[in-house]
Amino acid sequence: MNLINEASPHFHGKGSTQWIMGMVCLSLLPTLVASVFLYGLGAPLLVLVCVATALVTEHVCCRLMNRESTAGDLSCVVTAMLFAFTLPANCGYFPAILGTVFAIAVVKMLFGGIGCNFANPAVAARVFIMLAMPIALGAYPDIMGRPLDAITGATPLAMNAAGDAPYSYMDMMFGLHAGALGETCIITLLAGYVFLLVMRVVDAWATVPFIATVAVITGFAGQDAIYQVLSGGLALGAFYMATDYTTTPMTPKGKIIFGIGCGVITALVRLFAAAPEGVAFSILFMNMFTPLIDRYTRPQPAGGVKHALV
């Protein structure tokens, strides 16, 4: 009998990769619907462009690698949706397409496909576009039916860094402020995350330490901790990107360390760096340490030798 050795994740039945990714896509739909009410039809069209690009890119990469297409497992759709959610609704199609191709072709398929990538493709694509085309991410559209003030396009984090915080907590919860099309409406992101928790698709081992660490550090620094938690891409990053199977640690202890690390870096970037946001950088940075964290936190077999830190 011929055995095929493939990369993780290994799921069967109800827990198949396709089922898992389908649940994640389903959990993102409320936020996608909210983006229509906030930014108009341009938001779902941008998401659709990213999804179509991801499907085509993954299929082409599989053909070039002489492998059966894996586009049907929906992992590329999840990547495309998450990446699109980090973009302004008015950023244009070229940055969206370029970032999606980078996420799928370079970050994912170049390293062997699902289960082999060292970094979260959506996060890496966001950082890539942030560095390669910063102007595309520098302005945000007005909210439909609620024009912004003279500082149009300024996100809550940018305004907070400038010493101004004009938005209420309720505005932040319902996305009534400038921001990326899938990052602003916290209530729908939270609903999607709770759905994934109930369906046992994700857990809270990394999410809670991530958010709590940001709140504690920014609170001790004299910032409004609740405002910091509700603003920027923290909710999207903590709920969906810090819970990625492939690029985050396997054990609860490892996930806690990962979440705390992400929280520390995010808080430090927000407090001291020139850029007001640090979620994407923090997750990408901690992705690099996932193998090391796994090495020192994985359960030891009976009689096994523990690895020393030095």
TrEMBL record:
FMN phosphoryl threonine modifications at: 155
Coiled coil stretches, renumbered: none
EC code: 7.-.-.-
Record localization: Cell membrane
Entry's Gene Ontology molecular function annotations: oxidoreductase activity
Entry's Gene Ontology BP terms: electron transport chain; transmembrane transport
Keyword terms of this UniProt record: Cell membrane, Electron transport, Flavoprotein, FMN, Membrane, Oxidoreductase, Phosphoprotein, Translocase, Transmembrane, Transmembrane helix, Transport
Domain of life, source organism: Bacteria
Cellular component GO terms, alphabetical: plasma membrane
Membrane-crossing residue ranges in chain numbering: 36-57, 69-87, 93-111, 123-140, 174-195, 202-220, 226-243, 255-273
Keyword Ribosomal protein carried by entry: no
Entry membrane topology: Multi-pass membrane protein
Function: Part of a membrane-bound complex that couples electron transfer with translocation of ions across the membrane.
Oligomer and partners: The complex is composed of six subunits: RnfA, RnfB, RnfC, RnfD, RnfE and RnfG.
Entries under NCBIfam families matching the protein: rnfD
Name of the protein this chain belongs to: Ion-translocating oxidoreductase complex subunit D
Species in which this protein is naturally found: Collinsella intestinalis
